[in-house]
Amino acid sequence: MRNTKKTQKIAFFFLFLATLLVVVPVGLIVVIIVQKGLPAINWQFLTDVPRQGMRSGGIFPAIIGTLYLVTGSIIFALPIGLMAAIYLSEYSRENFLTRMIKLAIVNLAGVPSVVYGLFGLALFVVFFKFGASILSGSLTLGIMILPLIITASREALESVPQSFREVSLSLGASKWQTIRHIVLPNAIPGILTGTILGLGRAAGETAPILFTVAAFYLPQLPSSIFDQAMALPYHLYVISTQVPNVDEKIRYGTALVLLAMVLFMNLVAIVIRYKFRKKKKW
After folding, report:
1. Most buried by CB count within 10 Å: which residue of 37, 153, 154, 225?
2. 51 bridge partner residues
3. Which helix (H) or strand (E) covers residue 56, if one does?
4. For 189-233, how does the pLDDT look when each residue is reduced to its tens digit (9 = 90+)?
């Protein structure tokens, strides 16, 4: 009995240590960004265009461009990812082909973002002749986050008890009616989890937008989906590596705004997920 308690305490210690190894570095990063970036945050910084070669002014075009790209990628990826997850979970038969498709989707989630950037450049910019534009960037980011949404949505659908489907079908509902009215409402929290992960990755990536949409400097806002746009990740890269003599607080202020945007979008999705989770019957 004593050995069991001792083993349990050792296990808890290592689990706590592993948690600290994850939380402490992330906390330090956030503290450093807030400490060094907060002095740059003011109304002018958030609403003005870059000036003096991006050494002063604001980051408003980059904020708007990032919002356009994230919104476009989710509009493209979420419906397709959800429909693919429904097919794989509810309609497809378990055979060699479907197993290979599921394995390919999981593997695609680990492909480096620069590969997606080159793919978007070849397909959307060159082949479809969309050019370097918000449309090309959104489609590229949408394809990049598609595996995350499909995987999370499929797992959420499969976690709904099979008895729910059996009861619905026994009452005369069709397969699609069962999925629409029984399975999907109970799987929404898990689907939103995949959406949250996709939002975070789409908002913070630099390589895909570098090839497909990002502009070095655009003082005006884009007027259509075929225009180029500035984006916060690429703007942060530019002022940190390409533009000399940029005040440190501007770099950290840009990073802080990007971090705050991602956290805010995640918070909104988490609140929506929580409300749906409260309605679950199991």
Report:
1. 153
2. 56
3. strand 56-57
4. 888 888 888 888 888 888 899 999 988 888 788 889 999 999 999
Collapsing DSSP to helix, strand or coil, 120 comes out as helix
Q: Give yes or no for a contact between 208 and 144, defined as CB atoms under 8 angstroms apart.
A: yes
Structural domains in the chain, CATH included, are: 59-278 (1.10.3720.10)
Please give the radius of gyration of the chain, using alpha carbons only, rounded to the nearest integer.
22
Alpha helices per DSSP H over the chain = 2-37, 43-47, 60-86, 96-108, 113-120, 134-159, 162-170, 175-178, 184-204, 207-212, 232-241, 248-278
Strands 56-57 and 50-51: antiparallel
Three-state SS for 221? coil
Longest dimension (CA), the chain: 71
pTM: 0.89
C-alpha 19: how far from its chain's center?
23
